[in-house]
């Protein structure tokens, strides 16, 4: 029996019954794992380490860390459907999502403009800057547009597109029978493979990286995979393995894709399957109070600040390296020490951004929580 009832909610699309334990702390903890995959990848590509040996090791471990963004997209689709409020007005949903991402984005946008454009005097294209500020840069395939200002904000441009689409598509998804949802869940990873090859052959060669890695329509395939899996989970129709086996599936997928004999075009499809299996299993573990290594308090806090961490890490690392004149990285143990020091600086900056920007702005600009009435004992 529910402990609270919502009132004054306008009619909306029918939704499946939500399991009693609707909060998913394990998925919050998993957000940090995704952030670390991306950070590890950038440690190997942003010139922190000068020696070939350490860079090769990092590349071996985190060579597919860029797929952490893929993990975030799948997780985002799952969480948004799981937490979707039946009867919520469309504009209220949009407002809740935009105030979650826009303040952090605006702060980092301004910081980059002031540091790079004003302090260091690098040229900044004003049109590109405006396009970036309004988070539409991922729709522009030209170099210097989609990776601009705070370069990681390209992913927010995709997320904004997903947010706009979800309330329009979710009523249709919730009318689909379970067999159709399973068909979609199988088709989406295959469509990812088709989009990468031969789909990229349909666009000019100079646009192929943008088409496969940035284009919001292509990247939305990952988001919709999370959406469909969440809908099946809400209906108690998801039939994936438990969390221990799912983690084994992910580890095996990571090892297999790390081998050179596996074509790179296969990575997104294989990892998408591994990611959604883990996400759905972690959600089930929370609902059924099963074992999960991701719901402890430190990891949940790290998950809460993971978005801020993702937003600051490239800006902090590149800014510090340029400020101290180490554009070619550090040699020997100094490279490892610098990586750990920059990690700590990024985490500290993320904690400040989360505490003094993200949380206050969500409280100030976000919609009020719906009013609730506590039912009588007779209910």
Automatic annotation (TrEMBL):
Domain annotation Acyltransferase: ranges: 26-354
Compositionally biased spans, kind Pro residues: 10-19
Single biological process term from Gene Ontology: polysaccharide biosynthetic process
Residue spans crossing the bilayer: 30-49, 61-82, 102-121, 145-166, 178-197, 267-287, 299-321, 333-354
Region feature Disordered, mapped onto this chain: 1-21
GO cellular component terms given for this protein: membrane
UniProtKB keywords: Acyltransferase, Membrane, Transferase, Transmembrane, Transmembrane helix
Any one Pfam family match given in the protein's UniProt record, by short name: Acyl_transf_3
Example of a GO MF term: acyltransferase activity, transferring groups other than amino-acyl groups
UniProt-listed PANTHER family: ACETYLTRANSFERASE, ACYL_TRANSF_3 DOMAIN-CONTAINING PROTEIN
Protein known as: Acyltransferase
Organism listed in the record: Virgisporangium aurantiacum
């Amino acid at each position: 029996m529910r402990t609270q009832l919502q009132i004054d909610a306008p009619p909306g699309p029918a939704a499946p019954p939500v399991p009693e334990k609707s909060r998913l702390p394990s998925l919050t903890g998993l957000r940090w794992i995704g952030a670390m995959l991306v950070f590890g990848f950038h440690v190997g590509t942003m010139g922190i380490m000068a020696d070939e040996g350490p860079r090769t090791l990092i590349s071996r471990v985190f060579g597919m860390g860029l797929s952490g963004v893929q993990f975030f997209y799948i997780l985002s689709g799952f969480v948004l459907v799981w937490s979707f409020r039946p009867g919520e007005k469309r504009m209220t949903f949009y407002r809740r999502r935009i105030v979650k991402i826009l303040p952090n984005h605006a702060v980092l946008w301004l910081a980059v403009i002031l540091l790079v454009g004003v302090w260091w005097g690098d040229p900044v294209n004003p049109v590109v800057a405006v396009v970036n500020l309004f988070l539409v840069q991922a729709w522009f395939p030209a170099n210097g547009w989609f990776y601009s200002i705070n370069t990681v904000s390209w992913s927010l441009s995709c997320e904004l597109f997903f947010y706009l689409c979800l309330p329009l598509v979710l009523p249709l998804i919730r009318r689909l029978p379970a067999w159709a949802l399973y068909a979609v869940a199988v088709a989406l990873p295959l469509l990812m493979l088709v989009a990468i090859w031969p789909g990229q052959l349909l666009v000019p060669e100079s646009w192929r990286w943008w088409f496969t890695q940035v284009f919001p329509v292509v990247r939305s395939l990952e988001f919709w995979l999370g959406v469909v899996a969440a809908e099946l989970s809400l209906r108690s129709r998801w039939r994936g393995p438990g969390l221990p086996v799912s983690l084994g599936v992910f580890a095996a997928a990571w090892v297999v894709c790390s081998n050179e004999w596996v074509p790179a075009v296969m990575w997104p499809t294989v990892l998408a399957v591994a990611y959604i299996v883990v996400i759905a299993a972690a959600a089930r573990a929370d609902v059924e109070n099963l074992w999960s290594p991701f719901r402890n308090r430190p990891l949940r806090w790290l998950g809460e600040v993971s978005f801020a961490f993702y937003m600051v890490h490239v800006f902090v690392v590149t800014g510090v390296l340029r400020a101290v004149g180490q554009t070619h990285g550090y040699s020997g143990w100094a490279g490892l020490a610098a990586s750990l020091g920059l990690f700590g600086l990024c985490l500290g900056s993320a904690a400040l951004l989360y505490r003094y920007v993200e949380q206050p702005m969500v409280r100030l600009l976000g919609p009020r929580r719906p009013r609730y009435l506590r039912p009588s004992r007779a209910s």
